[in-house]
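Lab meeting, action items carried over

1. Structure of the two-component assembly. Owner: GW. Status: complete.
Input record:
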Amino acid sequence: MTEGTGTAEQGSVADLSTRTPTRSGDLSTWQAMRRSWQAYALLAPVFILLLIFNYYPPILGLLRAFYRWRPGVEASFVGLQHFGVYFTSPETPRELFNMFKLLAFFFFSGAVIPFIMAVLIFRIRDTESKELYRLFLIIPMLVPLIVVILLWKQIYDPNLGVINGLLEQFGLGFLARNWLGDTATALYAIMFMGFPWVSGVGTLIYLGGLGQISESIFDACEVDGCTGLRRTLRIDLPLVLGQVRLMTILAVIAGVTSFQTILVLTDGGPGFATMVPGLTMFHKAFRTQQFGYAASIGMVLFVITFTATLAVNRTVHPAVEDVRH
Amino acid sequence: MSTTTSTQVAPSTRRPLRYYQIGSHLFITVMLLLSLIPTYLLITWSFKNGLQYRWERWAISFPLRWSNYGAAWEIVGDYMINTIIVAFIGLMGMLLLSLIGGYVFARMDFPFRETLYYAIIALLMVPWVLSFIPAYMVYVRLGLLNTRLSLIIPELAGGPIFGIFLMRAFIAGIPEELFESARCDGAGVLDLIGRITLPLSLPGLATLAVLNFIGVWNSFLWPLVMIQDDAKQMIAVGLYKLARSATYGGVAGWTSQDFGVWGPLYAGYVIASLPLVLLFIVLGKFYVEGLVDSGIKV
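Predicted assembly:
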């Protein structure tokens, strides 16, 4: 970083370290480190906290996935047993399938829909309505997530819910059902929560990305007669691919790891209809005290998210804006 | 393409363009109205008595039943105070550590600076599912189960990971001349941090504070497993438990006859949303910028 060399040239009181070239051997590195004791001292509290509470737990989790483990009992090594049990369990294919369905849907609701919304808002000419739309995008975000989930639970309620109420009002009472309690609809009801999925961080992030594209590109594009859908696909989309990548990764992470909504709405039920691996991990740990088994599921989820994130990062490359060509 | 042709094209394209604009306005408005429905229902329900809730589901019922809010506060207030205490203590520590860390990495030069920096940033890549179970065990081992400290520590230890990332970028943008002249006046590191960096990085700290406060306010799974004592419980878990008792057992002090629990319950939800609304009104700029930037930069 340029700031670092800047301070060194000025021979500051605080940063004498770079006066000694660090390349010339171990001894001078040691000397430089001793001279920079202040920097290390200032960072010490952060690193002590991180070591105990942020480095140690994930490493411990990776190790304990191979152990039988519960509070107050000596952990015993069981090798790959947990993984064997998990992948041969009759519920596992179903919950993995549920997870991939949710993941695919989260890509649609979290990455695709907000993009369409952002492009539409971005092209609105009238700046006052543009600001108003931005404001209205934010309002639903001011409601805490748990309240949103509990509200939707009420909306789906078989007796008091507004969805069944509306259906009956329009003479469609035969369609009314226990949305979250019916094996056929429960998972789709979970997906439908948050309809129409436009408000929230996604649209704002895309709007931020579109705002960074320089005006001259749009001008050039208009002169060439590139408008509407063609412009969206040829100009807007390639230039916000960075944001698309981010939203895709967030959708993957949400699909694989977030089970809070399911825990509150159905707790995996009815039966195992809405079970996902994350929720199984939670149940195994906190209901049956199988912490080692839970840690092994955590490790499987980590491998899935890590692989998927890497794959998305490798395949999606944002276009570089170059006005001169 | 010459300029003359493009000006000739312009009048003919203008009309479809206007239709396009009107269509967009319509579509956006419909989508936004649809996404506001739950919020609308939440607010109208919070002012209803049981019968109004049963029979006037969509309309606003008059007179507004403000007493729901008093009844709700009796229960929700304690959870909110708990959460604010935890958030405040955690935030202060987190901001201090992020400020110091950001300064050290942006303004000081020392061996292994980049190595140490990336050692911190790498933690952003560790998904929480991997650490959730083992972290619980570590906290149990340290005797932190059912303590407020178990809620403060994740903020204090985990917050500076993103905090240092953000503050380093922010502090790197402060002109070097300011630090230089202070050093000439004999200022030490702590002076440089406290007297120069702190006042100039308030916008960055505000963004961090807002993002972390939202995080604490929404935290659910961690307090659910860590806190058994209802008197220490956080707001999100508190609302979850309240909703369960309203549905299945009734709530002390609320009338459970004729759907009477629902009005106060929704009033409780509204009260629990107010701090975020307040935060948005006061620090709206940092709220939006923080959300957007954190998305762009990570």
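2. GW to write a short summary for the group page. Key points so far: Residues 72-297 of chain B form a domain with the MetI-like fold fold (CATH 1.10.3720.10). The radius of gyration of chain B is 26 Å.
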